[in-house]
Amino acid sequence: MQDWIHPHFDYLPERPLFLCVLSNTDTGKIPGLSAAGASPDLTDYTPSADAELVELHKIVTIPEVPESPEGATTPAVVTKAALSLSGVPSLFVTSGLRRKPAVPYVDMNGSAGSDIRLATAIPDVADIMDRATMLGRKLAAFSDCIFIGESIAGGTTTAMAVMQALGYDGRVSSSLLDHPLAKKQEIVDAALDRCGASFGSMRSDPLRALMEVGDPMIPAVLGMLKGLSGTKTVLAGGTQMAAVLCAADALGLGGDVSIATTRYIVEDRNASFVETVEGLGRRWYMADPGLERSKIPALSCYARGSAKEGVGAGGAVLAASLSGVTQQEIVEGSDRVLMTVELPKKSGRA
Amino acid sequence: MQDWIHPHFDYLPERPLFLCVLSNTDTGKIPGLSAAGASPDLTDYTPSADAELVELHKIVTIPEVPESPEGATTPAVVTKAALSLSGVPSLFVTSGLRRKPAVPYVDMNGSAGSDIRLATAIPDVADIMDRATMLGRKLAAFSDCIFIGESIAGGTTTAMAVMQALGYDGRVSSSLLDHPLAKKQEIVDAALDRCGASFGSMRSDPLRALMEVGDPMIPAVLGMLKGLSGTKTVLAGGTQMAAVLCAADALGLGGDVSIATTRYIVEDRNASFVETVEGLGRRWYMADPGLERSKIPALSCYARGSAKEGVGAGGAVLAASLSGVTQQEIVEGSDRVLMTVELPKKSGRA
Q: Of A52, A149, A32, which Cα lies nearest the Cα of A95?
């Protein structure tokens, strides 16, 4: 029946919980790198706007729904539709976030990540991991199946840097149609240079790799994985979450951890989502939100490769499917979310 | 059997959850007012140290276990013993807290409260209540019985101001043996004067009363009560939580809300805990931690009226009793917690 979810997810959660980590970095502000915000300066605000959209169906922090320079709307719209249709509860976690959202959140504290070309990315990586481990232990008491997504601009570049520092061969996706891969590699090279690292040279010291060239989302998710240990966990994201799995591998973190993403990531020929995840011996799931049938160009463009994934959209759709939500409901629900989201009164849509 | 809990709590929670709200105010720094910290300047740090003690059995933020000028140790020691013995999970909530703890916490944001004699106490009271309402709704999905405590220095003075602004006649307790009641009334009078209020004059506008003369803990708890509506909730505290019940009454908030405190509050002849709570038609519970049998003066002094309550100690003891923990275990557990708590390496105990 649900061939829009592939393969079959063979566990029916009793108390599913959707988490989403929100972070900022200065790497995300390098022009031309990220689609998470119409302009680099807005990327600091995108994670909070995403959280508000999901929790409130209303955006408080910025005047508009976040969208990419190409006009794709934030995947938070799909996440919101999936969670609302299924009733799966959500909880946002901030880690190195500059602008806090107008919703409740669990704070990992920590500073925003640096521009990895110029400075150590996250000096407080160990503190973030410790706090997140405590949070994971706590959450294990409340859920039997936890989905973890992210909203962080520029996250695939830091993901790429971490994979290369740790010696994993994966190719990351882009939220832009025209993948700025050469630019990303240039940034990664400069970052590795800065800290005297090269491909695989930090394999035996993964925490240092995260500290030097990572972003604050990664240790937050790793810490939660550590704390959740026995609990079934599904990372909700594409190649950024695949990089988290690489770091988990390098750290020797086990547990019942799989990964779920959208069809748009799985089918991205520039990226290596499936190979990377299978190379680590982890299970992956693909959810097809069916957005080619959306009536709104800002969503139907996903099916042509814009935006693709984020805010745990693929995992949220998977979670929704487990409580009987259909693909058609996801498509119609996403359209409805975007058409009816409340914006701050002062400003109209541009 | 458990006559140390009075009256019998006639519900056995399946998934109890202990919350504790951490806040600061400048009112709490007025000299001679509060026992939550050995000196007024330390009161900003006391809530975080309490949270660290409960979550980590270790204090990170300050060099020592918080204690009152009279030498009573923080009631967080009793809370920690109760939660550890029973396995009841805890979650800390920050609302207007200056110094964040080294543990995971849900952040209500908001600024620390003012010195109520000098300025509007919490200008962002409505935002705090809204966020806390969302948090309450969320938590209702994860627990069938929620205990809510607090750690805020100077909280009885703002509690007293709120009760008087709303026209409730209650008398608050003190964490000091020699209750500085005249000083508190002087502060309350100055605060009411400042905003043109008098006894009962804000009865019809409770939000304004909280905004002018309250503290950031009160709207956080009220918001959670609003969001939790259907869920059994036990406020864990003495006369400060009684003041929260007064404000809930003025706001017309219903729900299955009772209050639990220590024997030391119930027996405080200077305060009116029982009358105030019964006057509101709410149920109260008393837990007797039996600290007169403690081998440590900093705990046995509770039985003579020092400290008395805080960090939800009475409610935590009640929650522990429901899973079979005995009074003797609480006494011995509290002694053990205090004797073995880890302190920052740099400094020894004074």
A: A149
Q: What phi and psi values does residue B272 have, to the nearest 5 degrees? A: -130, 40
What pLDDT score was predicted for residue A72? 95
Contacts of B89 in chain A (CB under 8 A): 138, 141-142
The radius of gyration computed from the CA coordinates of chain A, to the nearest angstrom, equals 18
Question: Any idea where the domains of chain B sit in the sequence?
Answer: 5-340
What backbone torsions phi and psi does residue A17 show, to the nearest 5 degrees? -140, 135
Helix, strand counts (H, E) of chain A: 13, 8
Mean pLDDT (whole number) for B260-281: 96
What topology does CATH give the domain B5-340?
Rossmann fold (3.40.50)
* CB contact (8 A) between residue B89 and residue A141: yes
**Nearest chain A residue to B99, by CA:** A109
Please report, as a single letter, which amino acid is at residue A219.
P
Instruction: Please give the structure tokens belonging to residue A42.
Output: 């807005």
pTM for the model: 0.92
CA geometry: angle at A44 spanning A40 and A49, to 5°? 115
Cα B322–chain centre separation: 21
Q: B108 with B95: CB under 8 angstroms? A: yes
Contact: B104, A108; criterion CB under 8 Å: yes
For A30-79, what is each residue's pLDDT tens digit?
A: 988 877 666 777 889 999 999 999 999 999 999 999 988 889 999 999 99
Q: Is the ipTM above a cut-off of 0.95?
A: no
* C-alpha to C-alpha distance for B119 and B116, rounded to whole angstroms: 6
pLDDT exceeds cutoff 80 at B43? yes
Best B19, B91, B108, B323 member to test A by mutation, with max A CBs in 10 Å, is B91
d(CA B282, CA A332): 47
d(CA B189, CA B293): 40
- pLDDT, chain B, mean: 94
A223: nearest CA partner in chain B: B104
Strand intervals (E) in B176-268:
232-236, 257-262
State how far the Cα of A112 lies from the Cα of A114, in Å rounded to an integer. Answer: 7
Q: How far apart are the first and last CA of chain B?
A: 41
B316: which 2 tokens? 């935590």
**DSSP characters for A116-173?**
TTTS-S-TTHHHHHHHHHHHHHHHHTT-SEEEEEEE-TTHHHHHHHHHHHHT------
pLDDT tens for residues A218-252?
999 999 999 999 899 999 999 999 999 999 999 99
* Res. A286 pLDDT band, cuts 50 70 90: very high
